[in-house]
Amino acid sequence: MEARIVTLPGDGCGPEVVAEGIKALGATADRFGHRFIIEEALIGGTAIDATGNPLPGATLEACRNADAVLLGAVGGPKWSDPTAPVRPEQGLLGLRQELKLYANLRPVCLYAELLEASPIRLEQLAGVDLVVVRELTGGIYFGPRRESSRDEAAAYDTMTYTADEIRRIAHIAFRLAQKRRGKVTAVDKANVLATSRLWRRVVKQVAEAYPDVTLEFMLVDAAAMNLIRRPAEFDVILTANMFGDILSDEASMLSGSMGMLPSASLGEESIGVYEPIHGSAPDIAGKGVVNPLATILSVAMLLRHSLELDAEARAVEQAVAAVLAQGYRTPDIHADGTTLVGTAAMGDFVTERIEIAQR
Question: What is the greatest pairwise CA distance in the chain?
Fold first, then answer.
């Protein structure tokens, strides 16, 4: 097949990890006989520097015409003033809104070779395999707000949701659970928030269409505790924008490093934006030490969800597993008895395994 993929390297370590994702795409295309047309565009801080806009019109147009988007990271100290009227994060939020990407999938699957890298006790990690399904274009990040000026002592951000916004993300969670272990945990703060009580009503309604899926509700503070205390009991976690943002970062520590976790942002159309969950990591950017595996695993999600190339996605995932089994590690997951490698070398090792994958 032929597919057009737009890459948005962005800021900090973004260009380094996206370069390794492109290697994986190239190896997959060669091995399975596809043609992937790669186009690069600006987003975030680098886009502000070049155009004054964190999401230039040319970038948005390129993404709309693509089959999928691979993104690195946005932000960094140069653009860190939270009161600035134009900020890198606006580019990412704007992209999600413009492409109508309302569902963020963040899988957490542990590799046996990395269990020692996790700060959680080994006996609690057995059987952990979960996905956080986060609503992405509503809630407190997008509701009415008031910024405070230097002379004002009040500000507000408003969490708003409609039943339709909740319903569409709930269907994605339940359909995903049907393909997994058949359980949805809806996380909210219904004892305090009116929006959470709306979430509960709508999710219960949606659940009636999925009698083969077990539904439970859990308050977000309890969910935060149980992600550490009994993480293996979760299958699909369904939650609102801000809660999902926080819980998925917490869940990343189960794997030992944010550098291991991919994500997919999806909507009604086949196009999606795929990115590692980590940020721009300015402290290590440019040093050739950042872990590219989250980006490479995001490539696997891109192949599966936007291009419907499941065998190719499995080949990428198996290549990552094989390289870890061989003992290669970037600094964030390095331990005694393993081989320390840099960003490009890790990407090369994965690429080599893809090149010999079974077709």
Answer: 65
Ramachandran sector of residue 40 (left: φ over 0; alpha: ψ -120 to 50; beta: rest) = beta
Tell me the residue length of the chain: 359
Specify whether 249 is catalytic: yes
Residue 245 annotated to the active site: yes
The active-site residue out of 49, 164, 221, 310 is 221
Place of tokens 């407190």: 140
In a 3-state reduction of DSSP, which class is residue 152?
Answer: coil
Torsion of CA 272, 278, 282, 288, to 10 degrees: -90
Residues 288, 258: Cα–Cα separation, whole Å:
17
> What's the rounded Cα separation, in Å, for the pair 311 and 322?
16
Q: Strands (DSSP E) along 178-233, which ranges? A: 183-188, 214-219
Tell me if 27 sits within 8 A of 36, measured CB to CB. Answer: no
Which pTM does this prediction carry?
0.91
Of 23, 102, 141, 235, catalytic: 141
The single residue of 67, 188, 235, 245 carrying the catalytic annotation is 245
Pick the CATH number of 1-102+259-359 from 3.40.718.10, 3.40.1110.10, 2.130.10.10, 3.10.20.310: 3.40.718.10
Q: Give residue 285's identity as a one-letter amino acid code.
A: A
Q: What is the mean pLDDT of residues 26-49?
A: 98
Catalytic residue, candidates 30, 129, 157, 249: 249
The CATH architecture of the domain made up of 119-254 is 3-Layer(aba) Sandwich (3.40)
pLDDT band at 311 (very low <50, low <70, confident <90, very high): very high
Q: Which segments of the chain belong to CATH 3.40.718.10?
A: 1-102+259-359, 119-254
pLDDT at 126: 85
Residue from 170, 95, 182, 180 nearest 133 by CA: 170
| pLDDT tens digits, 199-250 | 999 999 999 999 999 999 999 999 999 999 999 999 999 999 999 999 998 9
CA 245 from centre of chain: 10
